[in-house]
């Protein structure tokens, strides 16, 4: 610490320059950008993105070298060979069950519980970052993370699909054909719809993340929430509960591939997503705003 | 035993205290971690905040910084009530709370960039220069590109101090700043605190290294079991402890009898001699009385007890963790 000697007459470090004059505070996106750099720079997240990207490639290659068979969920796999854009759609329907929620769960675990676990939460709050601002920033980064994950699946799937199956017209679920150009727009809409669902899941994850100082515990808890939702959604005896489940309309994105698109289930899905995001966002805020930070 | 600080003359009344708390209390369940604390930290002072582990120092610091909500009482930081005004005042306060904490897979510099990015009052344009200046000030500039996880404990501690110095501060709250530093690093931190204090920064430093606090603090506060048992300027606090006379002799029994007859209090045997509190009796009278009675005096000293003796006498439990 050579610079610690009294000779370090570096005027920047000296006090009283700010005096007691009110300090100007400017709105800034620096914290959000720092948050995104943190997420993007973490090796584990990079590996996660690779896994997300590998699934559509795997599907494309597997379908190319074997004959298509009937799959579960929306019946995309059998239609893939007609147009490469069915690869990202098939990948989304496969990854929406586990991989995409897992990605959100990992990011949400890091968001608050991870910072509390490292102890960096106390230093962020004493910078100071207002607690509401911190939660909003964290949630914004999770929403961007959701878009990011979906975009990786869609882009990797589109690239693999187009490379292996070409850019012919797309056969809609209604049996009509649409051009490749309008098919691209349908896929973008599907991606956005899926990302909105994941963003709602992220609000649940953010709330859980404020409850614990163990990021892994928050991740596991959100996965349990997701899997229980899927199980409940598949039990017909409790169908009265289904409209209240976050995942109930997640697979409805197939309706966007009808001609014309069928909007009822999509609208219902978006309403449920919004309700979850609002309720759990408020719960997270209520929990975090007055919490004693002892980590 | 609590001695209030004399308010220093100041043109602006009410602004002469950097930290003031009144009846500050924090209960965790039934247990009071901090109990009715009345801290008075004058502006411009270097305030040593002492106390055994578990005596409530860190909880107090967390309350001052708005991390923990007090159960009762009020506190002001640089004239602003906290936690209500924390967002306004904290940009002027640098802090080190309960050891360093950073993202392990980011470099030292990237960690500081993150904290700087979080500060709405910091100017993004000179961020780089400020970060380099702070790193330079703690001697980390050369290793700023290494990942935090590769840092030694001493380097981590330095990085945390650098984070507290990212922007000019009026008040620094440093919780055990020399923890994990080697003797050289400890000396450097002492110099750093001295140079900051000479610039007018108030430094509130908690420590268990008493010798170090002894050397750099103008004011002291001693915590025991959640309560403040002594507070004031260093001389005030230490003046409260009477000096002790210490005699090394071959005839401790005779010496002890003479000391008691003279009116010294608390006379007791120590290895190689006796000691007692003169309580106003002149040292030369003590020596004369001993020599007249034929006691061979090998060594005679009258001195104030060390801060450590004082600390033990105030907290009673030395460094044991309290309840």
Question: How would you explain this protein's 3D organization?
Answer:
The complex is a heterodimer of chains A (295) and B (323). Chain A is an all-alpha fold and 295 residues long. Chain A has one domain (30-289). Chain A has helices at residues 30-41, 43-65, 86-95, 99-118, 120-125, 131-165, 180-209, 215-233, 264-289; strands at 170-171, 177-178. In chain A, strands 1-2 form a two-stranded antiparallel ribbon. In chain A, a hairpin with a 5-residue loop joins strand 1 and strand 2. In chain A, helix 2 runs antiparallel to helix 4 (99-118), helix 3 (86-95) crosses helix 6 and helix 4 (99-118) runs antiparallel to helix 8 (215-233). Chain A is globular and about 60 Å long. The two termini of chain A are 29 Å apart. Chain B is an alpha/beta fold and 323 residues long. Chain B folds into 2 domains: 17-239, Rossmann fold (3-Layer(aba) Sandwich); 244-303, Alpha-Beta Plaits. Chain B is 33% helix and 27% strand. Chain B has 11 helices and 15 strands. Chain B has helices at 57-64, 86-89, 108-118, 127-137, 153-164, 183-198, 210-216, 234-239, 252-262, 283-292, 307-315; strands at 17-28, 31-37, 40-42, 46-50, 72-77, 80-82, 93-96, 171-175, 202-206, 219-224, 227-233, 244-249, 265-270, 273-277, 297-303. In chain B, the strands form 3 sheets. Chain B has a 6-stranded mixed β-sheet with strand order 7-8-9-4-10-11, with helices on both faces. In chain B, strands 1, 2, 3, 5 and 6 form a 5-stranded antiparallel β-sheet that branches. Chain B has a 4-stranded antiparallel β-sheet with strand order 13-14-12-15, with helices on one face. Residues 1-13 and 318-323 of chain B have low confidence and may be disordered. At the A-B interface, helix 1 and helix 5 of A face helix 2, helix 3, helix 4 and helix 6 of B.
């Amino acid at each position: 610490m050579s610079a610690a000697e009294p000779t370090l007459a570096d005027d920047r470090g000296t006090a009283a320059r700010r005096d007691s004059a009110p300090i100007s505070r400017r709105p800034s996106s620096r914290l959000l950008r720092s948050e995104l750099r943190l997420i993007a720079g973490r090796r584990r997240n990079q590996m996660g993105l690779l896994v997300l990207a590998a699934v559509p490639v795997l599907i494309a290659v597997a379908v190319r070298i074997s004959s298509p068979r009937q799959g579960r969920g929306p019946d995309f796999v059998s239609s893939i060979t007609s147009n490469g854009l069915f690869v990202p759609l098939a990948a989304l329907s496969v990854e929406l069950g586990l991989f995409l929620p897992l990605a959100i769960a990992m990011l949400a675990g890091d968001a608050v519980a991870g910072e509390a676990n490292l102890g960096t939460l106390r230093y962020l709050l004493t910078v100071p970052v207002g607690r509401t601002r911190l939660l909003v920033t964290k949630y914004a980064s999770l929403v961007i993370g959701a878009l990011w994950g979906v975009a990786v699946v869609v882009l990797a799937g589109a690239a693999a699909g187009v490379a292996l199956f070409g850019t012919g017209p797309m056969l809609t679920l209604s049996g009509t054909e649409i051009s490749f150009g309008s098919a691209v727009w349908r896929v973008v809409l599907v991606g956005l719809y899926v990302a909105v669902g994941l963003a709602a899941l992220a609000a649940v994850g953010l709330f859980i993340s404020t409850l614990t100082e163990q990021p892994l515990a928050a991740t596991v808890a959100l996965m349990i929430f997701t899997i229980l939702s899927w199980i409940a959604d598949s039990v017909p005896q409790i169908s009265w509960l289904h409209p209240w489940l976050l995942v109930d309309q997640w697979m409805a994105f197939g309706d966007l591939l009808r001609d014309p698109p069928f909007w009822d289930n999509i609208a219902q899905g978006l309403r449920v997503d919004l309700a979850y995001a609002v309720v759990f966002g408020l719960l997270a805020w209520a929990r975090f705003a007055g919490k004693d930070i002892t980590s | 035993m609590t001695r209030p600080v004399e308010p220093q003359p100041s043109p602006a009344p009410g602004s002469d205290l950097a930290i003031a708390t009144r009846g500050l209390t924090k209960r965790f369940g039934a247990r009071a971690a901090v109990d009715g604390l009345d801290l008075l930290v004058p502006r411009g002072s270097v305030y040593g905040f002492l106390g055994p582990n578990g005596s409530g120092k860190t909880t107090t610091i967390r309350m001052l910084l708005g991390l923990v909500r007090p159960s009762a009482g009020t506190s002001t930081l640089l004239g602003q009530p906290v936690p209500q005004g924390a967002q306004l005042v904290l940009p002027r306060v640098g802090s080190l709370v309960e050891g360093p904490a950073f993202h392990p897979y980011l470099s030292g510099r990237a960690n500081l960039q993150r904290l700087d990015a979080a500060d709405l009052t910091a100017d993004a344009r000179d961020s780089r220069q400020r970060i380099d200046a702070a790193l330079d000030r703690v001697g980390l500039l050369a290793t700023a590109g290494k990942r935090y996880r590769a840092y030694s404990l001493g380097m981590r501690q330095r990085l945390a101090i650098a984070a507290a110095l990212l922007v000019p501060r009026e008040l620094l709250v440093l919780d055990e700043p020399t923890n994990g530093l080697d003797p050289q690093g400890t000396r450097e931190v002492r110099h750093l605190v001295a140079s900051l204090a000479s610039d007018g920064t108030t430094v509130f430093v908690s420590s268990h290294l008493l010798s170090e606090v002894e050397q750099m603090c103008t004011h002291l506060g001693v915590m025991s079991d959640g309560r403040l048992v002594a507070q004031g300027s260093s001389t005030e606090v230490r003046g409260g402890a009477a000096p002790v006379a210490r005699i090394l002799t071959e005839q401790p029994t005779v010496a002890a009898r003479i000391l008691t007859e003279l009116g010294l209090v608390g006379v007791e045997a120590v290895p190689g001699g006796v000691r007692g509190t003169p309580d106003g009796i002149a040292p030369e009278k003590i020596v004369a009385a001993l020599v007249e009675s034929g006691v061979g005096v090998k060594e005679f000293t009258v001195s104030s007890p060390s801060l450590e003796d004082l600390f033990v006498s105030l907290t009673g439990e030395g460094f044991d963790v309290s309840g």
